[in-house]
Amino acid sequence: MYLLNRAQRHTVNSTWMIISLLLVALLPFLLFIGLYLKSVLLLHDYSLFDLIFSKTWRPSAGKFGFYPFIIGSIWVTVVAMLITAPVCLLTAIYVTQYTKKYFLRIMHPAIDILAGIPSVVYGLWGILVIVPFISRYLGPWMGVKTMGYSILAAAFVLSIMIIPFVLNILIEIFRAIPTELKEATLSLGATQWQTIKHVLVRKALPGIIAAFGFGLARAFGETMAVLMVVGNVVRLPKSVFDPGYTLPALIANNYGEMLSIPKYDSALMFAALLLLAVSLFFNLVMHFFIVKYNKY
Amino acid sequence: MTRAQKVEEKFFKLLMILATYFILAILAIIIYSIFEKGLKSISWEMLTQVPQGGYYYGKGGGILNAILGSLALASGATLLAFLIGLPVALYLNVFLIRHKRMISIIRFLLDLVWGIPSIVYGAFGFSLLIFFGLQTSLLAGILTVTLFILPIMIRSMDEILSTVPVGLQEAAYSLGSNKSEIAFKIFTRQSFSGIITAVLLSFGRGIGDAAAVLFTAGYTDHLQVCSPGDLANGITRQK
Fold first, then answer.
1. B55-238 sits in which CATH class?
2. pLDDT digits over A176-222, tens only?
3. Measured between CB atoms, does B26 come within 8 Å of chain A?
4. Which candidate from B19, B122, B147 shows the least CB-CB separation from A91?
């Protein structure tokens, strides 16, 4: 029935498993080394400080300043987190502490649908709904002239995209808190909100920070949706109504044409390397917060 | 309870309700606006034809190439990721079950890889392409998406496999099975539905991701290879 006997099959299967495991375990290092080797060309000619803090981006003249892109990315991410963080925290507390069980059963599919929508669809939705809304209503109302393609549009779309991600972690965290803690506080005469404010949130703080950190890392690397609504103008944004440019959008927009200009290719790989470093850093730090949280 | 405390209590409860219904409302708006704008252009021609001249300006043709391309890309990548991912998840839960520290290191690495943005995979895949002197192709796209969905698949299989009771494993050992038999014959069967879920989840991630394939799969308006990247490109072009 089988081509090989049992011992041989065992050997084949084990080898296959170990090879796969090695491949997977080496993946982050391979990514890092691969991107580093590609960007060495650029790092050889310019110092790291110059690349990150110089403001002119003119590849044809050999000027590669990533400052506008980094600042653009930070603006978009921070504004998105400002929307996501309170909404997620409040919702997580509400669905775990106030509502009955059936409400969570309604919320979970809703969160899953939001999580399952591809980023391109979010971007499309941003173009169809958010951008016209900002240019026609919100901009004039605030007394600003804007085309709608702006930091704010990108941040809003981005915040919707990371809500399911952050919310899922937060709900898990709040559900993992032992009920005795809550009961003890309530029996001492605290109100429900006092219990939440002084006991639950404080207990869950490392977990909350970790959830926001994971969300932040995810938001920083998001490409397509942001690319479609952020406006893609290489300039330092002055307000949230200005168009901007983010690091991932820079990579995605310039892939086709970069081969004609020397070092352009290397510059884009350097941008990818920056993204990788930021993402690894955030995930690393947040992992330790989670570990700390689990130790309690 | 003082008056101020009562007000605070009510205020925050109101905020929480607002936040919850904000999320539900946004979901409703997204679904409504996509259907409202999309339903009228869905037709039989759109689903069964390739783009013809001037398609992107509202003339004849359809998006069959992009639909088939997405399916081919995502299925290929899911298959490849399954072939690498299943053994890794099994190895963690059968072979390394006594090495807790090793398991946690590997899970940690997988979590790190999971967090890497897909555009970085796209860039990495593209530089690999140049390194090997390949052209943008379905294969290149599949390889890139495989790397991207691999951690997702392994982690979700791992979650399921780690719930298999130790007793089952011990019973199999006492009957004389070796480790790979336990892995492939008992663990896979015991958590079959979970493995299917993991595969479908990765398929969903693979088919919806544009950034990783934007540079590696290439574009064509013919029935060869296209991807969600094509959708994005059509939109950005119109802008």
1. mainly alpha
2. 888 888 889 889 988 888 888 888 988 888 889 889 988 998 888 88
3. yes
4. B19
